[in-house]
UniProtKB/TrEMBL annotation:
<dbReference type="Pfam" id="PF03793">
    <property type="entry name" value="PASTA"/>
</dbReference>
<dbReference type="Pfam" id="PF03717">
    <property type="entry name" value="PBP_dimer"/>
</dbReference>
<dbReference type="InterPro" id="IPR036138">
    <property type="entry name" value="PBP_dimer_sf"/>
</dbReference>
<feature type="region of interest" description="Disordered">
    <location>
        <begin position="707"/>
        <end position="762"/>
    </location>
</feature>
<keyword id="KW-0472">Membrane</keyword>
<dbReference type="Pfam" id="PF00905">
    <property type="entry name" value="Transpeptidase"/>
</dbReference>
<dbReference type="InterPro" id="IPR012338">
    <property type="entry name" value="Beta-lactam/transpept-like"/>
</dbReference>
<dbReference type="InterPro" id="IPR005311">
    <property type="entry name" value="PBP_dimer"/>
</dbReference>
<feature type="compositionally biased region" description="Polar residues">
    <location>
        <begin position="728"/>
        <end position="756"/>
    </location>
</feature>
<protein>
    <submittedName>
        <fullName>PASTA domain-containing protein</fullName>
    </submittedName>
</protein>
<dbReference type="InterPro" id="IPR005543">
    <property type="entry name" value="PASTA_dom"/>
</dbReference>
<comment type="similarity">
    <text>Belongs to the transpeptidase family.</text>
</comment>
<feature type="domain" description="PASTA">
    <location>
        <begin position="608"/>
        <end position="666"/>
    </location>
</feature>
<dbReference type="InterPro" id="IPR001460">
    <property type="entry name" value="PCN-bd_Tpept"/>
</dbReference>
<dbReference type="InterPro" id="IPR050515">
    <property type="entry name" value="Beta-lactam/transpept"/>
</dbReference>
């Protein structure tokens, strides 16, 4: 018995001794061996770290008008657990679908989607989820829709007899979002950032490191409940906001490009359209546009990925006759071009190939200058192959930069392709077909060399990197001369010949681009296409192009236009009608906007003055006022009924452009309704509102598409919705009298705003 007791005591004592040894060892291990690691883990739990997001830099045009900016956005979230407790899933699905829908057609599917989100459970199915985002429809929405959601929440709270502070399962989280106020304007230049804030295309991607900035951080110590400790250590590293970027483009000229392309697209339905506008002296890009286009605010709505492609730099094509500038400039530089020398047009044989003029039979024996005006292929085969010779022709093609990229500061540029081997390939290259494939930006740089005195310039679109705090440039990009391709004398001579292509109204292929008041140099191009799967040129598919600049004596703007496969009904003779009107509209509007004065022309009678002084129409009869306006060359509109003029806009003595509209009132303007402004430009709409003493709110940009007026007398107000001409809902007003449908800048230099208030005239 005593032995059993002693044995039991020994076992119990040994157990407790071993236990204490283990505990002491564990304490030692924790306090000594693992001390630093555990302390680090504890500090991580005690500290709260918060990432401070930087503000992404703004992208601006050359006049500091905003093209892309960081803005506030809102995301709608659902709490299925709360929604289930209130039994309102169906009501919430219907209400939110009505607000967030893209259209009535999409509402049923969206309602089903929101109902599923409102009843979602956790992955393990144990309980309802707590926080679910409505993507994409309720993700990073604008303030207007967010306010509608808040109103819906308030309505639901009232229906459920809940206070305004009661959570009914719908939340609105504030976030950051990239916003493009011009919508489709310059979209291929800008690209976009996706909803996660990552740059995905265009300059947003190319300049991402410059724009995105550096994140900051905030950390502090907290207790177990997450409350900051009184004497806690706080570490704060401020975020470094991204730099702003000032581009060379001009928002107004960009608008002119896109408006003109929209008209061409509506009339000729090409596969795609491309436009580039540059200052030929510096090769600064003033505008660059493509159709089809897209809205970077809603990039996910794009139907075809090819619509994201910037064809101005990322597509290449056989240029056709616009490429003849290389052959022309080369022969002029070498002293081989005699404009009065005669040759037989129609057909020429090169080895075993017959090459024809575009009308196949030619025009008999004509001069080389007439061959240029008529865009004769035979003339340029003889000039390039017989006079210039193959080696020199290839040398000039390379001098003009067609064998390499321009290295424009934009992403995804492709190179041209120059691959002539046989005499027949050199022959077709003289007029831009066969083994010469180029890009629009290469062609633009080549023509700019003729406009600026023979210098091939580096095309660029970024003007300055700007400090967001001081507004001062951190880095600037000056124009760069790549090389002198021809002499200044040769460039001037070629410009003179290209001017005759436009000014000769009898045989010039570019005659439809002639502009009264401005000397224009230019060249047309019509290139047959080899369609996919075919080995020979198509007989009814073409790439139509026009490149020109003005004024010839001091070029301010050069515009390249390309239409891929417009619907010509099989008649290539219509090619000259496709782009010339667009060129005239773009260049005419741009030169007036730049303040370039018109000049007299020898071949056309042109008004000498571009500015007029408004006469005094007050107390005149309607007929007398009309006669006075006609005599002064003014556009004129009369409103109301009465015997004498009671009011006019602008006031007598005001100096205006000859294209500006004059308003005459035969009775008190406050007694007359605001006229229909649908189809009017922003400038015309603003002037009309001012004249009729109506407070106008405008949204969007472009032309008036919708109009709503409220109130009476001098308390009237109107809301005008503006949309680009590319929007099919916009129809130009029949009363427009301006020489161009593009807007003319207002005195503050703006042609459109995202949100404007137009006050009554004093």
């Amino acid at each position: 018995m005593t032995k059993k007791i002693k044995l039991r005591s020994l076992l119990i004592g040994g157990f407790f001794t071993l236990l204490f040894v283990v505990l002491i060892a564990k304490v030692y291990w924790i306090q000594v061996v693992d001390a630093s690691w555990l302390l680090g883990q504890a500090e991580q739990r005690w500290e709260t770290d918060r990432i401070i997001a930087p503000v992404r830099g703004t992208i601006m045009d050359r006049n500091d008008k905003v093209l892309a900016v960081e803005g506030t956005a809102y995301t709608v979230t659902l709490n299925p657990k709360m929604i289930d407790s209130l039994h309102v899933a169906d009501d919430i699905a219907r209400g939110l679908a009505d607000i967030l829908k893209e259209s009535d057609a999409t509402k049923p599917a969206l309602e089903t989607k929101i109902r599923e989100l409102a009843t979602r459970k956790k992955p393990d199915g144990s309980d309802f989820a707590v926080n679910v985002e409505i993507r994409n429809e309720g993700w990073k929405i604008d303030k207007e829709k967010a306010d509608q959601v808040r109103d819906f929440i308030a309505t639901m709270q009232t229906r459920l007899n809940k206070s305004s502070k009661t959570n009914i399962g719908i939340g609105i989280a504030e976030e950051k979002k990239r916003y493009y106020p011009g919508e489709t304007l310059a979209s291929h230049i800008l690209g976009y950032t996706n909803k996660e804030g990552k740059a995905a295309l265009g300059l947003e991607l190319k300049l991402d490191d410059t724009l995105k900035g550096v994140p900051g951080s905030l950390s502090y110590e907290k207790d177990g409940k997450g409350v900051e400790l009184p004497d806690a250590k706080v570490n704060f590293k401020p975020a470094e906001d991204g730099s702003n970027v000032r581009l060379t483009i001009d928002k107004n000229i960009q608008f002119y490009l896109e408006s003109a392309l929209a008209k061409v697209n509506d009339k000729w339905h090409p596969k795609s359209l491309t436009a580039i506008a540059v200052d030929p002296k510096t090769m600064e890009i003033l505008g660059m546009a493509n159709t089809p286009t897209f809205n970077p605010n809603k990039y996910w709505n794009i139907k075809d990925q090819s619509d994201f492609k910037n064809n101005a730099i990322a597509s290449r094509y056989e240029p056709g006759s616009t490429f003849k500038i290389v052959t022309l400039a080369g022969t002029v530089e070498e002293g081989l071009f005699n404009p009065n020398e005669m040759y037989q047009s129609g057909m020429i044989r090169v080895q075993d190939r017959e090459l024809h003029d575009h009308n196949r039979v030619g025009w008999g024996k004509i001069s080389y200058l007439d061959g240029l005006k008529r865009s004769s292929n035979v003339a340029f085969v003889k000039l390039g192959l017989e006079k210039l010779t193959q080696p020199k022709l290839k040398s000039y093609i390379e001098k003009f930069g067609f064998a390499e990229k321009t290295n424009i500061d934009m992403p995804n540029e492709v190179s041209g392709l120059i691959d002539m081997r046989y005499p027949s390939e050199y022959a077709t290259a003289t007029y831009g077909q066969g083994k010469v494939v180029v890009t629009a930006i290469q062609q633009t740089a080549a023509y700019a060399a003729m406009a600026n005195g023979g210098k091939l310039m580096w095309p660029h679109i970024v003007k300055d990197i700007v400090d967001p705090k001081t507004g001062k440039p951190i880095q600037s990009f000056a124009p760069q001369v790549i090389r002198q391709v021809v002499s200044e004398k040769t460039a001037a001579t070629v410009s003179g010949y290209l001017e005759q292509v436009v000014s000769d109204q009898e045989i010039g292929t570019g005659k439809l681009a002639f502009m009264e008041g401005y000397r224009v140099a230019g060249k047309t191009g019509t290139a047959n296409l080899v369609l996919p799967g075919e080995k020979t040129y198509s007989t009814n598919s073409w790439v139509i192009s026009f490149i020109g600049y003005a004024p010839v004596e001091d070029p301010k703007i050069l515009v390249t236009l390309i239409a891929d496969q417009p619907d010509l009904g099989g008649n290539y003779h219509l090619g000259g009608q496709v782009l010339a009107p667009a060129f005239k509209e773009i260049v005419g509007s741009s030169l007036q906007y730049m303040g370039v004065k018109t000049t007299k022309q020898t071949q056309m009678v042109v008004k000498e003055a571009n500015k007029l002084t408004v006469p005094n129409f007050m107390d005149m009869s309607s007929e007398s006022a009309k006669a006075a306006a006609k005599e002064s060359g003014l556009s004129f509109e009369v409103f109301g009924k009465g015997e004498k003029v009671m009011d006019q806009f602008p006031k007598a003595g005001t100096e205006i452009l000859s294209t500006q509209r004059i308003y005459i009132a035969m009775q008190n303007v406050s007694e007359m309704p605001l006229p229909n402004l649908v189809g009017r430009s922003l400038r015309d709409a603003v002037e009309a509102c001012s004249f009729f003493k109506v407070d106008c709110q405008t949204s969007g940009e472009g032309y008036v598409s919708e109009q709503a007026t409220t109130g009476e007398g001098e308390g009237r107000s109107a809301t005008l919705q503006l949309k680009p001409l590319s929007d099919k809902s916009v129809t130009l007003g029949t009363q427009a009298t301006s020489s161009s449908d593009a807007p003319t800048p207002t005195p503050n230099g703006k042609t459109e705003t995202q949100r404007n208030t137009v006050k009554k005239s004093p």
